[in-house]
Amino acid sequence: MRWPCCHRAAHARKRARCSRAVSRWGSSPPSDAMKKILSYLVSTLIFNTAIAGILTLLMPGPLFWHNFIYSQCIGLSVLALNVGATAYLKNYLVRWLVRILTLPLSVAVGMTLAFTLSGVGSWGDQYTWLTMTIGLFFSLIGGITLLLSERIEMEVERHKLMKSESLRREIEANLKLLQAQIEPHFLFNTLANVGSLIDTDPVLAKHLLERLNDWLRVALVRARSDRATLGDELDMLENYLQILKVRFGERLRWLIDVPGDVRLVSFPPMLLQPLVENAVRHGIEPKIGGGEIVIRASIGNGMLYCEVRDDGVGIQSADSGGAGLANVRERLATLFGEQGRLVLHNGAHGGTVATLELPAKN
After folding, report:
1. Helix (H) and strand (E) counts for the chain?
2. CB 281 within 8 A of CB 32
């Protein structure tokens, strides 16, 4: 059991990670890339079959199965050699230049494969050159269709990235504004407390300055770090509660019960602090005898669960917590989508329980 103090643990910035689009499929998760490949394959098979049917109707002579084999061999060769071999080229124009230059080779490979499978045709056959010309024509049409499709997909992805980046910047700006509002207020109040204690209780004033120094040290380290963990957040909360302890005295008690391995999990700044502030302001402070705050965290099924429980007066209204908790919910939704949420309810034996749920990442 630990005893704490007063603070508005302002901290760290939310370090933005910008999305990088590297390649056509490489920028997507493996499952998305596989879906895209299967989509191309199915579309190619259908397109090839349609070409075989058209050729059978327009050119009396060859049987449908003959045209079918040629169409499939040429189409699949174009897909494998022309599209597949260039899928990971980063530059869009270079990728399509290579595809255009390798198109005749892809058709020639498909023709050779068709000779082998069907046993019909050869390079000296007049029909072969007609088939190759038709194959190049339809391959070009398919390539243009694919080009337009990729352009549309790229525009959609670009707009999504722009929207996501805009939202990220808005959240970051809100966080910095919140920190700018909290830190001066917290510092001024704490220094004012120190000033009032110097003459009446210099020992306690020294203790408060030491706690403030600890809080500033942790805040500065976290502000300059590229990574933030749950342990960092808990260190901030410990110093915050230690400072609050000077104001509340024995009316404020707390317990932080979080295993060492759980403390290593990545954790965005300013998510737990509003929950603790809410517990102090709406639970402990209104209660004559004060109360205890218990902070626990655990990992299960790939999710991190952080619980802030108090034995104060409990939730007084459905919107208890106001802007602080609304800000937490907004940031959870932005950072983690449906995987992040905040649940607030009355405890079984009084007080309030606030639980954060978000993906656990080291």
Report:
1. 8, 5
2. no
Distance CA 32, CA 25 (A): 8
What string of DSSP letters covers 260-307?
A: TTGGGSB--TTSSHHHHHHHIIIIITTSTT-EEEEEEEEEETTEEEEE
Question: For the chain, how long is the longest CA-to-CA vector?
Answer: 110
| Gap between the Cα atoms of 56 and 77, Å rounded | 21
Name all domains of the chain by residue range, CATH numbers in brackets: 30-162 (no CATH), 201-359 (3.30.565.10)
Rg (alpha carbons) of the chain, rounded to whole number: 32
Distance CA 282, CA 313 (A): 7
Q: What is the pLDDT, as a whole number, of residue 334?
A: 80
Mean pLDDT by 10 residues, the chain (362 residues): 34 36 42 73 82 74 75 81 66 72 77 76 64 72 73 82 77 62 69 87 88 80 71 90 89 96 90 89 91 96 96 72 78 87 90 94 78
Please check whether residue 36 is in contact with residue 215, taking contact to mean a CB–CB distance below 8 angstroms: no
